Amino acid sequence: MATALVARTSKTCNLFSDDQSTFRTFNAGAGPIGPEPQTLHDEQIVAVVEELGRSVVDAALSTAKCCDDDPLLRDLTPLGSLARSLVTRAGQVIPDIIATVLRANGQTVLREFALPQTQTARDLVANNRMTGPIMLPHNDGIVGYLHADLIVIDPDTHHATILECVRGSTALSKPKTKALIRSVRTATLSARSALGAEGYRVDDVTCGVYERYGRAGHDDDMTIREEAIDDFFGVPIAPYLMHFDGCVYSHLSEAVPDALGAVIAMHSGIVDPSAEMTGRPSTEAPRLSRVSLAGNIMSIDVAKLVSPADRRRSREAESDERQPAGPARR
User: Fold this and answer.
1) Are 116 and 221 within one domain?
2) Domain containing residue 202
């Protein structure tokens, strides 16, 4: 999801190292309409999230004010443009927020890393021969690239997780969900070699999709949905994503009356101000948990998404099994 918005917000993120939407009318002076702001532990992360929220809204409003009239929407074109631009841009910064939180918690996170897709890997995926001690070369028979939304490398286990991030606020067609999974799997089979060539130590690799709102319909074995991302990485991420949603809503409610007030006033009866918004901030503060384990197992699994937390637990169990038994009691 390489976009101009990512470039515009990358400076903020460097402090640490088709969708469903509802449009509401906003009345100046009516007071806050969105969810209450949430108190989060890490002020630096909160600052990044809030700046991203403002940037998304400002960019969407700029687009709405500059667009040409649509022949169908006519004078309502700015409202349609705002809705489309807003949900697209909000989806594009989901991996930026996740990366910010994970980097703050000691993980190595790569954004938009170009992973080669080779013909050999494509054939293996097409024939469902994808699991086991596979490490394909990354520079042999390249047929394309996946610019991965996220590659997260655990510094303790050297377990790499390749994730594509989608909003997932509405169901997608089966061909579309299968195509994304197939693309990620193909890139993953040579990812260890590609990352190693850039100096990153990776012992095992997994891959999958993160659905922010959990409705897109990707394969269950390959998908993290909504708040499950916290348990997956062992770090509270969902509260910051929810806070981002609240920031977007709040900034939008303040900016829209001035930016598009004339259009809204002309057609105030055609929108429903009581519609529900998704992604309300959680009232629970994030809780951090960290586990440090050792061990070395090389495996690439693209048949099922394996969490870093699970990998740490399995390493710990293997370490316990290797411990010599104590003297027997008489």
Assistant:
1) yes
2) 106-234+291-320
Yes or no: say if 86 and 57 are a contact pair by the CB < 8 Å rule: yes
Rounded to whole angstroms, the Cα distance separating 272 from 268 reads 9
Signed CA dihedral, 251, 55, 177, 218: sign only: negative
279 falls within a domain: no
Total domains in the fold of the chain? 2
Q: What is the average per-residue pLDDT within 285-301?
A: 44
CA distance 308 to 292: 11
Which residues in 197-326 belong to E strands, given as ranges?
204-211, 223-225, 299-301
| Residue at 325 is within a domain | no
Clarify whether residues 137 and 249 are in a common domain: no
- Contact status, residue 189 vs residue 137, Cβ threshold 8 Å: no
26-30, 97-101, 287-291: the lowest-pLDDT one: 26-30
Count Cβ atoms below 10 Å from residue 102 Cβ, excluding itself. Answer: 23
- Cα distances (Å, whole numbers) of residue 246 to 62, 163, 276: 20, 24, 13
Specify the pairing of strand 150-153 against strand 204-211. unpaired
Helix-, strand-, coil-residue percentages of the chain, each rounded to 5: 45, 15, 40
Burial profile 156-182: b = 16 or more Cβ within 10 angstroms, e = fewer: bbbbbbbbbbbbbbeebeeeebeebbe
How high is the pLDDT of residue 9? 31
Question: What would the pLDDT profile of 163-196 be if each residue is shown by its tens digit?
Answer: 999 999 989 999 999 999 999 999 999 999 999 9
What is the pTM (predicted TM-score) of this model?
0.71
Mean pLDDT across the chain: 77
